[in-house]
Amino acid sequence: MTFKTTLMIGTALTAVAGMALADAHGMADEMTIVSWGGAYQASQIGAYSDPYLEMHPEMTIIYDESSAEAVAKLRAMNEAGNITWDLVDVEAADAIRLCDEGLAMEVDHDEILAAADDGTDASDDFGDSIVSDCFIPQIVFSTTMGYRTDLVGDTPPTSICAIFDLETYPGQRSLNRRPIANMEWALLCDGVAKDDIYDVLATEEGQAQAFAKLDTIKDSVVWWTAGAETPQLLADGEVVMGSTYNGRLFSAIAEQDQPIGMLWDAQMLDFDGWIIPEGLPEDRLARVLDFVHFATDTQRLADQAKFISYGPARASSAPLVGNHGTLGIPMAEHMPTDPANASNVFVTQYDFWADYRDDLDAKFQSWLAQ
Amino acid sequence: MTDASAPENEVMLTSDGRSLKSSLNRALRREKIRALLLIAPLLLFIILTFVAPIVDMLFRSVENEIVGNTLPDTVEVLAEWDPETGELPSERAFEALYADLFLAAEAKQHTRLGSRLNYEQSGISSVFRSSGRSLDDVGELTQDVLEDLDPAWEEASFWYGIMQGTGDPANGLLKSRRDRLAALTTEDMSGDIGFLPGSDISVVLPRTAAAYSDFAIFTAIADEDVVSEEEPWEGVYAAIGLDLQDPALREGILAYDGPGAAQLNAALEAELPVINYREAMIEIDDGWADLSNWEVIKTYSPRYTDGYFLNAIDMRNGADGAEWRPENEQLYLTLFLRTMLMSLAITFSCILLGYPIAWLMANLPARSANLLMILVLLPFWTSLLVRTSAWKVLLQQQGVINDLLVGIGLLDDANRLVMINNATGTIIAMTHILLPFMVLPLYSVLKTIPPSYLRAAKSLGATDWTAFWRVYFPQSVPGIGAGSILVFITAIGYYITPEIVGGTKGVFISNRIAFHISSSLNWGLAAALGAILLTLVLALYWVYDRLVGIDNVKLGG
Question: Does the distance separating the beta carbons of A362 and B520 come in below 8 Å?
């Protein structure tokens, strides 16, 4: 055999091997869960996946911290025809959007979720938190504001509008790189009545008004994309104040003992939960359903509150919420729904955001880039 | 090389009797094929993984089939509508819109069209989304009346009986509906569905037969259910309402004697709700009363569009052709300009910093030069993300540099420098990251310049500066050229570093491309921006070739 022939045969073999390379993904003892990273994801690992893995030691659970871009990524996966995620943690508005677009699977809540211990159907136990046929609720959370106690002088902020008050509180602030919450707060602090905000925000003029208000602080804002960034920026002293999720602030304050204070004023209350992507192969779907059934039962949802200060979405879990897993402090008073914290709650209208998110996102991003 | 005048019988032959020329060609061809086979895997690999995706992606910058595929009937009716009249489209357009949208909502494709059109007309996405949720209500008006009239209308099998008929099947209708659904869902809609629309009924009730066929195809193929066991969706009731109230069809329905004739005649005589689709659609979402939304659908109905390219240069299709976007939406020209200017700035700072290093490396003794080389290469081997994040630590307001300046009293604590999350941050970090691309080619060229030239110039009376500027520098230009091209072209397409340290004022056009590819999923616009960027780079390369000459660029001695 001459060298040339050998080379040619080798080349041909490589080509054949390349074509025969099969898609090896999709084994049911592996599951990819998409979540938000940081303290929240840690609470899910502690309350759901670690106990589940104890029962199923052959399993591998992979966490992907992409929930903030879940809608875009699921759309792209759908376009490419290759769904690599098994279970996705999203906010209520995103769940509605994904359901409308056929990217999330519609589920029968009573069929796939465990009933409460007293026999109440899952759909009654979850109640209003089931905002869409695709949404499997987990928690109630709120977006709120934290500040550096040592950088605000003798007058710690008491109102959310401190964000827009550069005179009293000079310095950088961190805000979410998405319109949600920012637009509402901007209008609220521009004098729009709380009940009218979404009506105003649905109009061109209202959106312009919100952007104009945000313009006043645009140069002093660090924009974050992950919930863990604000606590980090606050801890570094890079920002004076910033918005983030209440559980992240709790963990920075209570667990890491940072000089950070938090504000419950105009906290934006919202639901967070699972969706199952549409079009999973049978073996993966079976695994996901098994996990979801376990992870959303009464005890598991109550367990999550041991790790982070988010309220369980099940009515039957509320009485079981106890003390923090390691610190031993009672968790109930750190929940966004605790009466002491809920004196001025702003309930996020997820159906508004389901309809307007695409449009406002586009406007917000080009506003940012200008 | 052949002699044209040579007579044919004098062709030179090889030993096996063939002409020498064809024999030679054959041998050459064999060699060529063999050579081609050798590179075939690489060629295939490059075509499949590089060329084809790029062409496919660039094609998206003009492709616009979604409007025609999602709203085919509406687009057809709108062809006769003139927006200049200032009036909303006809009732027929609203009827077509209802039917098209209903089908799109069942296939969950309406939100995609909404997102697509929202690129051109902000706010239209929410119109499509909220409409998709309420379309059932309109069909239910007719459904309720029919079902009160005769409970048979609630039965799946009754409907199936009527629509299947007893005579010949209308294969043409089924085929055209299959094609329509396949275009809408981009999925294969062929295969047995256990239903064939009767040719009689599709003449008597054309809208209903079409709507029921859609329902049947969708039920059997997408939902994998049995058609005869499923009650039709509301859109079919809306269609039969229109058919029964159509005066042109009345005669045909009266004469019809197939399955369900009695119920159809009873329904014909009953008072079905008269639905004004214009009012119904506006009731569902008042966006349909907005002329500009309709105009956008009409403007973007062709299969190909220049809309993405116009958008990429801050323009749009207006009533009178292309026009500038409103000031507050203009973005991309600024970004292109910023990308160019900042890449130039980065290239120049690379020359300024890189030239002395390269000169030192070329002129120091080998030992020290090697050490310098390692110092240049070390960061080159470090992960890009690590280097960028390190700059974040150094440059931030509570960072090392600011702390140092405050510590030695050069800076007041309240006036710390803002060196990150802006253009400064991007230029500093990218200069550092791209520096090796300047130093290495420069070094390899400087290395080849004989030191004796400089000495000769000095011995002829030149000052240090003249000797450098007139003798040494001109010989190093090819190295500067090579380094500049490398740095500039790399910088222009960079996006990780600007994303991390650029804030909002220090980002490049490539960050917007990445944003449109991965977040907003406006791939058409991303493709258009990418195509423009590619053209710009090629144009600059051409200009460079004309000015400096590409042969003068040297990557090594």
Answer: yes
Interface probe for A, chosen from B48, B504, B517 (most Cβ of A below 10 Å), is B504
Inter-chain touch B329–A76, beta carbons under 8 Å: no
How many Å separate Cα B307 from the centre of its chain?
12
Written as six digits, the tokens of B417 are 């420098």
Dist. CA B549–CA B531, nearest whole Å: 25
Each residue's pLDDT tens digit, A284-326: 999 999 999 999 999 999 999 888 889 899 888 888 888 887 8
Q: Is residue B314 part of a domain?
A: no
How many residue pairs bridge chain A and chain B with CB atoms within 8 Å of each other?
A: 90
Q: Name chain B contacts of A222, Cβ cutoff 8 Å.
A: 421, 503
Q: Which of A222, A218, A230 is nearest to A367 (CA)?
A: A218
Q: Of B115 and B553, which is predicted with more confidence?
A: B115
User: Residue B126 and residue A369: Cβ atoms within 8 Å?
Assistant: no
Chain B 91-130, residues with CB within 8 Å of chain A CB atoms: 107-109, 111-112, 114-115, 118-119, 122-123, 125-126, 129-130
Domain that holds residue B541: 332-552
Give me the residues of B, 146-205, that contact A with CB < 8 A.
Answer: none
Kindly state whether B554 is in contact with chain A, defined as any CB-CB distance less than 8 angstroms.
no
Selecting from A11, A72, A355 the residue whose C-beta is nearest the C-beta of B130 gives A355
Are B264 and B404 in the same domain?
Answer: no
Using a CB-CB distance cutoff of 8 angstroms, which residues of chain B are in contact with residue A366? 329, 331
Tell whether A254 and A298 lie within a shared domain. no
Give the Cβ contact number of residue A66 at 10 Å.
18
Q: Is residue B327 assigned to a domain?
A: no
pLDDT at residue A231 is higher than 50: yes
Antiparallel, parallel or unpaired: β A30-34 and A87-91: parallel
Residue of A14, A76, A222 with shortest CB distance to B521: A76
Nearest beta carbon to residue A237 from set B126, B133, B398: B398
Tens digit of each residue's pLDDT (9 = 90 or more) over B285-316: 889 999 989 999 999 999 999 999 999 998 88
| Gyration radius (Cα) of chain A, Å | 23
List % helix, strand, coil for chain A (3-state, nearest 5): 50, 20, 35
Question: Which residues of B are less than 8 Å from A363 in CB distance?
Answer: 122
Tokens for B303? Answer: 């299969």
- Tell whether A150 and A259 lie within a shared domain: yes
Whether A233 contacts B399, CB under 8 Å: no
Identity of residue A192: V
pLDDT reading at B552 higher than 70: no
Cross-chain residue pair A361–B112, CB shorter than 8 Å: no
Cβ–Cβ < 8 Å for B69, B103: no
The CATH number of the domain where A40 resides is what? 3.40.190.10
Query: Which amino acid makes up residue B247?
Result: P
Q: State pLDDT tens for residues A55-88.
A: 999 889 999 999 988 998 998 888 888 899 999 9
Q: pLDDT tens digit string along A187-220?
A: 999 999 999 999 999 998 999 999 999 999 998 9
Contact A361 B520 (CB under 8 A): yes
pLDDT reported for residue B232: 92
Would you give the distance in Å from CA B336 to the centre of its chain? 18
**First and final CA of chain B: distance in angstroms?**
39
Same domain, B96 and B224: yes
Number of independent structural domains in chain B: 3
| Domain enclosing residue A96, as ranges | 30-140+272-327
End-to-end CA distance of chain A: 66
B-chain residues near A79 (CB < 8 A) = 521
Distance, in Å, from the CA atom of B197 to the CA atom of B172, rounded to the nearest integer, reads: 10
Chain length of chain B: 557
The alpha carbon of residue B460 is apart from the nearest alpha carbon of chain A, in Å, by 58
Average pLDDT over residues B344-352: 96
